[in-house]
Design a protein that fits this description.
By secondary structure, this protein is α/β, with parallel strands linked by helices. It has five helices and five strands, in the order αβαβαβαββα. α4 links the parallel β3 and β4. α3 packs parallel to α4. The model has no long low-confidence stretch (mean pLDDT 94).
Length: 123
C-alpha cells in the first residue's frame, strides 16, 4: 500500500451518483487511495446510509433524481456535521453549494487525490 493509501486507510467514503459508471469510477479511485467506499444512486438511500455510518467524506453529485444534491448537502451539513462534503457535477462551479471541496466532471485520479489531500491535510 502506498503512503497516500495508508494515510486514508480506515476512513469511509460515501459516493452518491445516479450514474453507475461515475459511481464506480469514484469508488475505484477512492479505494485506490485507501478509503472503504459505499456507492448509492439516490439521496434517499444516501440518507439511510450516512445516518448509520457517518462517513468521513461524501462525494455528492448535484443532479440526482428525487431529492437533489443541494438538498442532500443541506441535510448532511446538519445531520453529520463532521463528514467532509465534496460536490461533483457537470454544472458550472458557480452553481455548486458551499462545501469542503468541489470536483467538476470529468475528473481524474490526480484531481481526486489532490481533493482528499486538501480536505484531510493531516491524514
Amino acid at each position: 500500500m502506498t503512503g497516500r493509501a495508508a494515510r486514508f486507510e480506515g476512513r469511509s467514503a460515501l459516493v452518491v451518483d445516479d450514474s453507475e459508471d461515475q459511481g464506480d469510477l469514484l469508488r475505484v479511485h477512492l479505494e485506490r487511495l485507501g478509503f472503504t467506499v459505499s456507492v448509492v444512486g439516490t439521496a434517499e438511500v444516501a440518507m439511510d446510509s450516512y445516518r448509520t455510518t457517518a462517513p468521513a467524506v461524501a462525494v455528492v453529485d448535484l443532479l440526482l433524481p428525487g431529492i437533489d444534491g443541494w438538498q442532500l448537502v443541506d441535510a448532511m451539513k446538519s445531520e453529520v456535521p463532521d463528514s467532509r462534503l465534496v460536490v461533483t457535477s457537470v454544472l458550472g462551479v458557480e452553481d455548486y453549494p458551499s462545501v469542503d471541496a468541489i470536483l467538476p466532471k470529468p475528473f481524474t485520479f490526480k484531481q481526486i487525490a489532490h481533493t482528499m489531500d486538501t480536505i484531510f491535510p493531516n491524514g
